[in-house]
Amino acid sequence: MRKLIIISSFLFLFCFANLHAQNSNHRNGISYKWVLLDYNAPFLGNSPLDTDGALFDRGAEIAYWRNITPFLNVGVPLKLASATLPDADQDKALNPNPFKTSKFLGSLDVVGKLHTFDKTWLLNPYLFAGAGASYVEDEDLIVQFPLGAGLAFRLAEQVYINAETSYRPSLSDDRTMWQHGIGMIFSFGGAPTEKPPMTVAPLDADGDGVTDAEDACPTVPGKAILMGCPDKDGDGIADAEDDCPGEKGTVGLNGCPDADGDGVANNADNCPAEPGPASNNGCPIPMKDGDADGVADEEDKCPTVPGLMRFAGCPDTDGDGIADGDDDCPNFGGLAKNGGCPDTDGDGVLDKADKCITVAGPAASNGCPEIKVEDKAVLTDAMRAVQFETGSAVIKTQSLSVLDQIADILKRYTNYNLSIDGHTDSIGDSASNLTLSERRAKACYDYIISRGLSTTRLSYKGYGETRPIADNKYKDGRETNRRVEFNLFMK
Length: 491
Fold this sequence. Notes:
- By secondary structure, the protein is an alpha+beta fold.
- Among the domains are: 2-188, Porin; 373-490, CATH 3.30.1330.60.
- Helices cover 15% and strands 24% of the residues.
- An eight-stranded antiparallel beta barrel has the order 1-2-3-4-5-7-8-9. It has a three-stranded mixed beta sheet with strand order 11-10-12.
- Helix 3 runs antiparallel to helix 4 (400-412) and helix 4 (400-412) packs across helix 5 (430-449).
- The two termini are 73 Å apart.
């Protein structure tokens, strides 16, 4: 028997050496203990603490444990021991120690362990109960029902010393026993967290924030809106295309200024402070000009409103080179190809219809970045993947990773908000179902907010049983109807 204990101890330590390297999610555990078996006390009717004449058998036990909830473990202990068993055919009054010769005993149990306090505490008492079967050589299988209590002392985050005692009533005659043990528990868990792949920053030789691959002027710092080219006078025209790179001008005059607004650039205007036609080199010609814009009334298409000579006397309020009458956005500078309206992010969706003016996106999503197919799949699958404890709003631990993914999607799509809708099946009271659905939606809302999202970007609501998507008459339909939906929408 001593050899048996030594061999089982070696196997246990070998297993632990391999398991201890795993990521410590604490969902699984291996325990090992040395045990004492007492068939004497139940058979003779004395106290298990009365050691006078008691026969204690020795053995070893190894078990695998699985964490089902924060306070409940289920385990499968395997025990090997020598057993000195009582002989029911002998008269206990005549023979006070009617025990048979020591025999080999092996047992396998299924046990549930209830932790009564937080398992992160230094001392952790627990209760356990279960059922098992024992094999004794030359005998039939013995069915027993272990009931007991124990105390675990935490040495480290994944290591415990524990001691326990149990009473094991049996269906077989004279096979009820006491068992006492002391040993260690080691916890382990999930796969190692993968490190994000290393990325190499794109080249930007001039350090202007525009990568060389997209920079029209890769050796000179410039502006992103001008494809990385400089604009010294800040008129929105790259120096290479600006006829007056040292003076702020207008698009219509290729970057040159027009102080008097007569359509003649200052560098070609003989009267830069007085409006005049180009035919007179920018100098005024005495004429009838009711709006005093330098365009004779007979030639002025807008005779009552001051305008520009190049637009036949009509104004260009935003100075984009397009007369107000032809400009779809007369108060905002834009390009002729866009009808005079701006498209700040250059995505083909004009600012007046673009809900994400500074971020490029397709017209189908109103100019905002389109949600990727894989991100849509996460939101769709979450309707099934996010689960709760039965009849409550407590989110199951395995569902939290899905909510983490949804929080990450929100952080990447900053122009979108999220609505969370809770639904139930039709079983039970409709008012209670409505309350439960809203509590579950709020539980998801609270968790995502805790991941660093603003409350202004999320909302939640419960609909109870009012919006089924399957038939509540069938079990599968009711399972489908119990769901939480996550819907992205633009601000």
